[in-house]
Design a protein that fits this description.
The complex is a heterodimer.
Chain A lengths: L2 H25 L11 H29 L12 H21 L7 H41 L2 H6 L3 E2 L13 E2 L2 H32 L2 H16 L2 H24 L10 H25 L3 H9 L4 H30 L2 H6 L17 H9 L8 H34 L2
Antiparallel strand pairs in A: 1-2
Helix pairs in contact in A: 1-2, 1-3, 2-3, 2-4, 4-14, 6-9, 6-11, 7-9, 8-9, 9-11, 10-11, 11-14, 13-14
Chain B lengths: L21 H37 L4 E10 L2 H4 L10 H5 L2 H13 L6 H6 L8 H11 L7 E7 L2 H7 L16 H13 L2 E5 L2 H4 L12 H32 L4 H13 L4 H15 L7 H26 L2 H9 L4 H30 L2 H5 L20 H9 L4 H32 L4
Antiparallel strand pairs in B: 1-2, 1-3
The chains are: A mainly alpha, B mainly alpha.
């Protein structure tokens, strides 16, 4: 019997219990005792008492079957006849008990609300479970990876040459040096920030301090739309339009071979910078508008021009918040994937020339994990080591940035 | 003091205007303002350039060239030995492209014996004719022996030539369409037999190695499944979590931990969620690779923080007086929240959800890791079947070399952008329409 069918039967019993319980409560309305809960709550309590134990049992039964060796994958054949019968019996017993227990003084509402509260609490722990899941799953695979490659060789190695596991893969040990990838990641992020921070910050200043409300009401949504464009589109723009354009221009300038490659740090950084402009501008817009009016009025009253007020009063007051915003943006740049996959190249170089290709952590995660996977070769597992490095890097940036921004907000509240 | 007559005092000469650099300061002011304006225009200019470059490449993808031919379903070609009654495989294996070719030969008035000319016809019609004609015959075998007018796709190269994208000035040997084919094309065009029509295949076909028969059908269904899963899971869970945190949770270590966690999750790179999905859903729980259920779960986890943050802001914006009034009338805390606070916060929650969904729809990186970069030709019928997603389809077409694939890719980007713009604009309009200052 399939899981879905059993579930449907249990639910049907539950619905029946709901109506029976409510009906019974309504029928009791005539008696002299003032009822504690509305009939609806009695119905809901009967429903919950019917469905919850049965579903819980089904889940446990499934896990039990899943834990046994040689059992087919989950969601397959369902709980089997024995499990199905027990589940349906549980549901029926719950329904019977709940419906018979309905009486005017019964505190059905309290019970239902208590269960709901537990449900709400459960939902809010999913965020924590996700984080724990991220850390544990990556940690587990990373430790396995460090079983075959030493941590020192990973964190301080300067050569990235994983050598895809060949058939047999006897002596061909790959080299997994993080340094070239990390350098590429940081370099591209730096170029992106050099584009995004000045442009984004200046447009935020203009929008917050100069623009009329009419201009604001048009430009702000437009910038939001720019932020809503998926990164794959930016990546395609880099790959199809900007990369070849810069390559051809450099070829024309040099009068021969192009000195800018179609896939290079410059192209990836530029396009990523464009992507980050709206991020910087909306974050710093919020921060600049949070600077109290009185500071501005004081400065303007002393005869400063608007730009002087902005440069000497508003921006210094907003500085901590802006630093936080830049850090948040930097963490976006470091974790960005699609733009660099399409525009940065795959060769793990160590170079300072922005016109050449370099690769990043995210590109290598994608490279190592697309195609056929073997979950015991270091070639696959290294992706998780890279992932946890990336996670730690961005987490540190985010924690600092969020703390700075929060502190800044409190300062003016 | 009041006795002093002002007239008596010598009027001091007006002091010479000191140069306090006012002009320079005003110049600096204007310059600063200009920089700001410049920055805004640069941002908008990038938006414009990108849209123009994508739309300019992609709009032609919505038309596809086809040739309408009277196809004679000749028994001697389909089933030369007359065995289809006993062996149904005959109809599957029959040489259908020959039917199309024969019809074309007749239409163009070529002598069927002229082998050289017939060979030049190669690559004029799409190989998709095989499937198309086979489906017609399989659906209704009585068509054999009759003639029926069928619209057959031209090959990708002819399609490009028809749209004027192939430079005919280039030497014939170095382009993919021969002069003879161009002449035939012009003749058919003049006769009105060969024409561009709306490209339905772009929306219905699955993956294919030939550009003219590849489309986003599988990707659209995959994306739809994933969005449905995200909506079904992330919205209830997100709203429940926000209600707990905003209305019920006491301020303690645990709730602080949850808060910090949610804020951080919102900023975790999306690719990390892909790693989580690969390790937990596929490797540990044994869900199938490339399936939209896994993609949906991963995107749910990714979207949850966005929805939670938006919902909490919406709940916090509902004034405490509403709660006090409900509580004062004897409602329980739970009734207050569900009957009064939540409905008032609904527009804000909706806006946040739409924005979260739009982000999930455009997300590519985590889907690459859970194997959704797959060659899927058949449309998935359940979320457990292999599928791709819209942005992943774009990525896959981007790595193809042929020009016709680039055209399709740009067309797909246009469709994705239209979806996203519609969602984002809905969110912006909703926010303006229902924004309520208490």
């Amino acid at each position: 019997m399939s899981s879905l069918l059993v579930l449907a039967i249990v639910l049907a019993v539950g619905v029946a219990a709901f109506f029976a319980g409510r009906q019974r409560a309504v029928a009791q309305a005539g008696c002299p005792v003032k009822p504690h809960s509305r009939p609806r709550y009695h119905g809901w309590w009967a429903f919950l008492l019917t469905v919850l134990p049965a579903v819980l049992f089904l889940v446990l039964w499934d896990i039990g079957a899943f834990a046994q060796p040689h059992s087919p994958a989950s969601l397959g054949p369902g709980p089997g006849p024995a499990g199905a019968v027990i589940a349906i019996l549980l549901a029926a017993a719950g329904a019977l008990h709940a419906v018979r227990a309905v009486e005017p003084r019964g505190r059905a509402r309290d019970k239902v609300e208590k269960l709901m509260l537990w449900g709400l609490l459960g939902a809010s722990t999913i965020a924590i479970l996700t984080t724990v899941g991220i850390v544990l799953s990556m940690l587990f695979q990373t430790l396995q990876f460090f079983g075959s490659v030493s941590p020192a060789a990973f964190f301080f190695g300067t050569v990235w040459d994983p050598r895809f596991a060949a058939a047999g893969s006897g002596g061909s040990e790959g080299q997994f040096g993080l340094i070239p990838l990390l350098a590429g990641t940081l370099y591209i992020a730096l170029v992106a920030l050099l584009v995004a921070v000045p442009v984004g910050l200046m447009s935020a200043v203009y929008m917050a301090e100069y623009a009329s409300s009419k201009v604001r009401s048009v430009v702000k949504p437009a910038l939001e739309l720019l932020a809503g464009i998926p990164t794959i589109v930016y990546g395609i723009f880099a790959l199809v339009t900007l990369g070849p354009f810069l390559r051809d221009i450099s070829a024309a300038l040099a009068g021969g071979a192009p000195f800018i490659q179609g896939q290079s740090i410059l192209v990836a950084g530029l396009v990523m910078g464009i992507m980050l402009i709206p991020v910087v501008s909306s974050l710093s817009d919020d921060i600049i508008t949070a600077v109290p009016r009185s500071l501005r009025d004081g400065s303007l009253g002393l005869g400063a021009t608007r730009s002087e007020t902005i440069k000497r009063v508003v921006l210094p007051a907003a500085l901590p918040g802006i630093v936080g915003a830049v850090l948040l943006t930097a963490s976006r740049a470091v974790g960005e994937t699609m733009i660099v996959v399409l525009a940065a190249g795959v060769a793990a170089n160590l170079t300072l020339n922005p016109f050449e290709a370099m690769t990043t952590i995210t590109v290598k995660i994608v490279n190592q994990l697309t195609g056929d996977l073997e979950f015991d070769s270091p070639q696959t597992l290294v992706a998780f080591a890279l992932g946890i490095t990336l996670f730690a890097l961005t987490l540190a940036m985010n924690v600092v940035a969020l703390a700075v921004v929060r502190k800044y907000r409190e300062q003016y509240e | 003091m009041s006795e002093v007559s002002f007239d008596a005092l010598p009027v001091p000469a007006a002091p010479a205007r000191r140069d306090i650099g006012l002009k320079a300061r005003y110049r600096a002011e204007r310059r600063f303002r200009l920089y700001g304006l410049l920055a805004v225009s640069v941002g908008l200019a990038f938006l414009a350039v990108m849209l123009v470059s994508v739309v300019g490449k992609g709009y032609t993808a919505f038309r596809q060239t086809a040739v309408t031919l009277p196809i004679a379903f000749d028994e001697s070609v389909i089933d030369p030995r007359g065995r289809r009654a006993t062996d149904p495989g005959v109809l599957v294996r029959a040489d259908y492209p020959k039917l199309a070719q024969n019809a074309l030969i007749e239409k163009l008035g070529i002598d069927p014996g002229d082998k050289a000319m017939v060979r030049k016809l190669k690559g004029f019609l799409s190989d998709g004719a095989r499937v198309q004609l086979r489906d017609i015959v399989m659906a209704d075998p009585s068509v054999i022996g009759t003639t029926r007018s069928v619209e057959i796709l031209a090959s990708a190269n002819l399609d490009s030539a028809f749209k004027g994208q192939i430079d005919l000035a280039v030497d014939e040997a170095r382009r993919k369409v021969s002069d003879q084919q161009v002449a035939w094309m012009n003749r058919l065009k003049a006769e009105g037999v060969m024409a561009g029509r709306f490209n339905i295949g772009l929306f219905t076909f699955g993956a294919s190695s030939r550009p003219e028969t590849s489309g986003m059908g599988v990707a659209i269904i995959g994306s739809f499944y994933m969005m449905a899963i995200v909506l079904l899971l992330a919205l209830p869970i997100g709203v429940a979590a926000s209600i707990y945190l905003e209305e019920f949770a006491r301020k303690n270590r645990f709730t602080d931990l949850i808060e910090v966690n949610i804020n951080n999750l919102a900023a975790v790179p999306s690719i990390v969620f892909g790693l989580l999905g690969l390790a937990v859903f596929i490797n540990f729980m044994g869900l199938p690779r490339s399936a939209s259920i896994v993609g949906g779960l991963v995107l749910t986890l990714m979207t949850l923080p966005t929805i939670i943050i938006a919902t909490r802001a919406a709940l916090a914006a509902v004034p405490p007086s509403i709660r006090s009034a409900a509580l004062g009338l004897g409602a329980s805390k739970m009734q207050t929240v569900f009957h009064h606070v939540l409905p008032l916060a609904a527009p804000g929650i909706l806006t946040g959800t739409i924005i979260g969904l739009a982000r999930a729809l455009g997300e590519t990186a985590p889907l690459l890791l859970i194997g959704m970069v797959a060659f899927v030709a058949d449309r998935p019928s359940t979320p457990f079947d292999p599928a791709t997603a819209l942005p992943v389809q774009i990525y896959m077409w981007a790595s193809e070399a042929e020009r016709a694939f680039v055209e399709r890719m740009s067309g797909a980007i246009i469709i994705l952008l239209i979806f996203l713009m519609a969602m984002n604009i809905t969110a912006i309009v909703l926010r303006r329409r229902f924004e309520r200052r208490w």
